[in-house]
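Students often ask why we bother encoding 3D structure as a string. The short answer is that it lets us treat folding as translation between two languages. Here is a chain of 317 residues written in the first language.
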Amino acid sequence: MTLAQNISKTGEMGKVDSPRIICKNRISNSDIRSYKGISIGQRFGSLAVLAPEKGKNWRCVCDCGNEKVVPQYKLLGGQTKSCGCQKNAGHPTVDYTGQRFGRLLVLREAEPHIGPTGDRRRQWLCRCDCGNEVTVLQTSLQKGATTSCGCLQRVYKDADLTGTHFGRLTVEGPADDQPLSGNKCWRCRCECGNTKEYTTTILMSGRVSSCGCYQTEQRQQRMKDNVFEIYNGTNISRIRKQTLQRNNSSGVRGVHKVLGPTPQDDRWIAMIGVQRKRIYLGCFHSLDDAVKARRAAEEQYHMPLIEEYASVDAAGK
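And here it is in the second language, the structure alphabet:
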């Protein structure tokens, strides 16, 4: 039995808990990488260390049997705890068989793509409308990065777009300077009178419909209507809504947790933003104290602005 099989099966050799790293704002990645406390057989989540690799990387074996090369700082920081097999744990596996993505029809799942570090990524065998079959990464299908076997690029290459309208743009003809990539560039005139050059791919994808004047008009209109309720350098609508960010760990805006060497050393940081500035309110042992400091700061900084904006807005109407 090999060392990898022994470690994966027993999980006893050199079993230790993953070290807790203090907040990234306090310890840089270079400091973490210089840490030498990794030994053969040491476990980090589902990974067991097999051998060192070049560039402060470590070859590890996962409990599922796959091997993966992981940077040392990711092991110590707890950022990587498996070969990737746990990313979809608890989530149903999506079956794309029979679904269409552009010109591609998904036939079945193909063998996974294995990257240079051992990462496994799902792939699907697809048939293009032109008859060709191609294997495509699942992420490329989801993002719309791949919509054909490549034949669509050949169609774009041979297309003559002269006189075609794309929103406010009218194609006048090929540009004087053509890119070496072969993606043909066209000279377009906007309704505002400006002339700009765009490639066939950009025009056909629908990503542009003007020279940029439309976006400028929309931005000016939003500022005129004051959709975001910006007043005295502060977004009034945002501080009214109290919307939490996805990575919020406290349930209260402006309060986040900082990990210490041990759970007893964990702290709560309270901050508040006002007039394009971030104000540090303090570091607290308990969440309740940090929340109290945040609420007091909201009364001190936010409420006067909200009341002042309400009076100005009412007078303007």
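Translate back mentally: The first strand starts at residue 43 and ends at 44. Keep this in mind for the problem set.
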